[in-house]
Amino acid sequence: AANAFLDSLAHHRRAQGLPATAINWGPWAGLGMAEAVGKQQQARWSAAGMGTIPPATGLEMLAAILRAANTAGTGQIAALLVDWSMYLGRFAGQQPLPLLADFQDERQTATVAPPAGPSRGRIFTELLQVDGDEPRQAILESYLQRRIAAIIGAQQESIAVDQNFVQLGADSLMVMELLNELQEELQLTLYPREVYERPSIKALATYLAREFTRMHNGQAPEPETMTTLVAAPAGRPGTLAAPAGHPAGLDEGIIFLLSSPRSGSTLLRVMLAGHPDLFSPPELHLLPFITMAERQDQLGLTYLGEGLQRALMELKHIDAAESAALLAAMVAENVPTVQVYALLQQLARPRLLVDKSPSTAASEETLRRAALLFPQARFIHLLRHPYAAIDSFVRQRMHKLLGVEDVEPYQLAEQVWATSNERISHFLLDVDPKRQHLVRFEELVTEPERVMRQLCAFLEIPFDGAVLKPYTGDRMTDGVTPLSAAIEDPNFRKHDRILGERAEAWQNIKLPRPLAPATRQLAAVWRYKLPAEPETAGLAPSQNGGTTRREFIVDVRGLPICVCAWGSAEAPAVFCVHGILDHGAAWEEVALALVARGFQVIAPDLRGHGRSGHIGAGGSYHLLDFLADIDGVVRGTVHDSGPAPFTLLGHSMGAVLALMYAAIRPEKLGALILVEMAASQNEGVDDVQQKLAVHLDYLASSPQHDVLPDVQAAAGRLRQAIPAMRAETALRVAERLTEPYAGGVKWRWDPLLRTRTGIVLEFGETSPAKYAALLGQKKLPLMVVFGTATRDARTRELAQQLAEAANVTPVALPGGHHLHYELPAQLADAIVEATARHKPSKLFDEQKP
Fold it and tell me: Rounded CA gap, 598 and 297, in Å?
């Protein structure tokens, strides 16, 4: 406090035109506080390149300062003896502190020799030149013994290799100093917990030798079967109840930046930090926990808690010690994390708080907690190509940060990318589209101004050019102390500009094994190219005449609708609508037969089905919603110039929807084909009351799927429902219609679809004869297809009712209800016959899928 006062007094007098100079002295030899700290601290200074000033030299420096003060008008000056080569070496791989930036050249040209021991930078080459972990362990033991002795100010021979060097006096700053040196020397990303968990030289050397071999000699542990994501802690079970009332001081205005690890979230966070209307600190890691004590228990030996500490330092203008004491008090009092959010928002006002913590996407419970605490929160979903994210995850050894040992890193990295992004996507299905925004990393680095203008518009704040300069100004990219590890991306401070070339980095990445089918499906949904992957149906753009299914997303009233497509975009189109609990890819075999005959096939997953979005808690499904999906997909992809009519095909409930659509938009169609159309029933009052009761019970109880052991079990369930389905078809369908859950799998379709009461009641109020009359007025070619082995005789009766309409063609096939699975070739022949009466259009613009 006294020193700060003297500095301020000198500046104050200078501002008034009065003489004053404050001298910030380095340590003097044998005098003052520098002597009081003891020999151990003095040895640490020496090891860092900081020398003590002999009194005679100090007097000479004082005279020089006084002469300079009379001529240059300097109000504050530092006087110290430093070997910049040694001192700045502690910040290797980082941007220098602004005060020290001018000394970088001196670091390059300094001639002062480093302390005794192995030359800095040579240990890496020495380790590479020997084979095996044991020789490397011996080299590392000797190296660590010398470096730790220098850091803690002890004699090398006084430290045994099996002693706990933390107990010998190595504090957290000393550990970080050692960690920074090890990272530079070994070219290996390391985390504090890796040192704290091995606090003896022998244990640490053994561990480092093994990790050095794995990273630099291409050796890796044997792959294991990963069934569940090893995620960041998500708080205690059962703690996700909605808070009682709005917590005092909590502002609903908050922005959550959601992404999988290594997706570029640090860059986007720092860009946002430049906006004057936002407070965008490093990772807070608050949301997964209920109390601060719980947070402390879980974060433990990691340094992930320092992001919150750095935010408090910035907001309260306090140093590392004060902020650490403040956090310790919060832990001791077991303060709820929601109160910490309220404190941050209060201190940041009028700026909006941005919470960028990858742990938020580690569990569905944590994501839902965000919606419970902050009903008006805005969410940014940041996506990055899986190859780039996975490769970066492994290179940065993120599995060590998560505390996961003996796991195949690439497999874990893939699972983290897939699971995180899928959880985020599923969560956002329940969020108002106006409160969510998608950002692709590749577009962020190649078109930063366009992306950030769109993002500012989404956040309803004016665009500010500072967001395009992430490497200028104070944006909390440093640690809580000069020696702290980077809180976020350890590579961020190695750059000085946005690197557009990183958008294409994935093209040069070769993963050691193909991605899992589920991961490839997710990548295909987000339209990421995977050129290094094996050809797999349903995952890649069409090749060789379009026999491979491709999938893409169309936004319909804020809900993502997944669309399956086969064939050339130039071919005549057949639009297929599936039935209840089915999906667009159910038309696969029919589509392949049609593609061979010169058609393209388009088949969306209706909402709640397949890979499309769910309506969320409190919602319900109605025929009009499904009908709007069809209309939205057509509107979102059809040629603007107005196409020639296309063929519309529907099965079961999908046939009902096709019939309705044809009655409403007959000018768009050239032919209508209804396969095993679901028939309505003439119900009595009691039946209606019973169905309504069942429907309300389902809505009140939030039905959930049963967990099945594996995909094979799900395929078995499908074959029980559809005995004619072939085993290989059932397995393919089960792979697309299930997702990993609780050690097994569960169905992807929304459990609310179990009750069809609302749908059936709506359909029961309509008369097929009315639709038939409408179709007859339009003279639309109509084909009704039914199976002779179907169990529902009403389908035949319905065909007879529709026969009254003009141009109807009844077709009977020797199968049951699911003709698209049982007799795909025969059904394709019938479709070709129906389309022979007109020339179908090219429905989809080849530039859009």
Answer: 63
Q: How remote is the C-alpha of 138 from its chain's centroid?
A: 41
SS (H, E, C) 492-531: HHHCCCCCHHHHHHHHHCCCCCCCCHHHHHHHHHCCCCCC
Q: How far apart are the first and last CA of the chain?
A: 65
Q: Is 425 helix (H, G, I), strand (E, B) or coil?
A: helix
Contact yes or no for 612/562 (Cβ under 8 A): yes
Tokens of 557: 């009233």
Cβ atoms of 176 and 192 within 8 Å: the answer is yes
- Statement: residue 575 has pLDDT above 90: yes
Q: In sequence order, what are the beta bridge partners of 676? A: none
Separation between Cα atoms, residue 779 and residue 781, nearest integer Å: 6
Tens-digit pLDDT profile for residues 733-791: 998 888 887 778 889 888 878 765 455 555 554 555 666 665 655 567 788 888 888 76
The structure tokens listed for 313 are 């330092």
Which residues face 647 on adjacent strands? 574, 671
For 271-324, give the DSSP string.
Answer: HHHTSTTEE--S----TT-SBHHHHHHHHTTSSTTHHHHHHHHHHHT--HHHHH
Residue with the bigger pLDDT between 557 and 326: it is: 326
**46 band by pLDDT with thresholds 50, 70 and 90:** confident
- Nearest-angstrom CA–CA distance, 785 and 222: 54
Per-residue pLDDT at 506? 85
CA–CA gap between residue 458 and residue 607 (Å, rounded): 25
pLDDT tens per residue across span 110-137: 333 333 344 445 778 888 888 877 888 8
> Which residues, in sequence order, are CB contacts of 341 under 8 Å at separation 6+?
250, 254, 286, 353, 373
Query: Does the CA dihedral 472-477-479-483 come out positive or negative?
Result: negative
Q: Which of 52-61, 134-143, 208-217, 663-672 has the lowest mean pLDDT?
A: 208-217
CB atoms closer than 10 angstroms to residue 354: 23
How confident is the model over 803-821, as pLDDT tens digits?
665 567 788 888 888 999 9
Contact 815, 789 (CB under 8 A): yes
**Contact (Cβ atoms closer than 8 angstroms) between residue 301 and residue 401:** no
Could you identify the residue written with the tokens 């109605």?
Answer: 622
Q: Which of 552, 763, 767, 514 is nearest to 657 (CA)?
A: 763
pLDDT at 8: 92
Q: For Cα atoms 626, 632, 636, give the angle at the middle one, nearest 5 degrees.
A: 155
Local structure of residue 597 (DSSP, 8 states): T
Cis peptide before 350, with omega less than 30 degrees from 0? yes
* C-alpha–C-alpha distance, residues 572 and 564, integer Å: 16
Mean pLDDT within 100-107: 60
d(CA 463, CA 231): 36
pLDDT of residue 279: 94
Question: Is the dihedral angle over the CA atoms 802, 805, 810, 815 positive or is it negative?
Answer: negative
What CA dihedral angle connects 107, 111, 116 and 118, to 10 degrees? 70
Q: Which residues contact 698 (CB under 8 A, 6 or more apart)?
A: 752, 754, 755, 757
**Which residue, among 782, 833, 840, has the nearest Cα to 645 in the 3D structure?**
840
Strands (E), 523-599: 550-556, 559-566, 573-577
Q: Which helix (H) or strand (E) is 784 found in, with range?
A: strand 782-787
Q: What is the mean pLDDT of the chain?
A: 77
Question: Following CA atoms 330, 332, 337, 340 in sequence, which dihedral angle do they give, to the nearest 10 degrees?
Answer: -10
Residue with the two structure tokens 């330092």: 313
553 in helix, strand or coil? Answer: strand
- In this structure, are strands 254-259 and 378-383 parallel, antiparallel, or unpaired? parallel
Q: Work out the pLDDT band at 436, boundaries 50, 70, 90.
A: confident
- 517, with CB counted inside 10 A (0-12, 13-18, 19+), is middle
What does the pLDDT read at residue 358? 80
What are the beta bridge partners of residue 50? Answer: 82
